[in-house]
Design brief:
Blueprint lengths: L1 E4 L2 E4 L10 E6 L6 E5 L19 E6 L5 E6 L4 E8 L2 E10 L13
Antiparallel strand pairs: 1-2, 3-4, 5-6, 6-7, 7-8
Length: about 110
């Protein structure tokens, strides 16, 4: 894990396992949650708060600025899937945003 403070970047000597092929990770602005799009198999030593079924070959995950939604880029389906995070519950709300090509990465602009 890295600590970033302005232009200063330090290795904190804390490693976190997020499974076998984590293609996208985002940290909520509150710092309380991390979202990982993992196309492989394997466990994690992060505290698992919630889990939801996502598309195939998902390569990115990003929190909304308020931390209430998680957006996942599904490469095979060529869409952005919208999940809602309500406390300790992560739920697929059935919203898909179609894109012309497979989304290989995703980032949400800060407020």
């Amino acid at each position: 894990m890295l600590s970033i403070d302005g232009a200063k970047v330090e290795y904190t000597k804390r490693d976190i396992s997020v499974g076998l092929r984590p293609y996208g990770i985002d940290i909520a602005s509150s710092g309380a949650f991390a979202a990982v799009a993992n196309i492989g198999r394997g466990g994690t030593d992060l505290a698992r708060v919630g889990e939801a079924a996502i598309g195939h070959w998902s390569q990115g995950a990003a929190f909304s600025p308020d931390g209430k939604h998680v957006f996942v880029g599904n490469m095979a389906e060529k869409d952005i899937q919208v999940l809602i995070l309500d406390g300790a519950t992560l739920k697929d709300i059935g919203v898909r945003i179609a894109v012309k090509g497979g989304p290989a990465a995703i980032r949400i602009a800060d407020k």
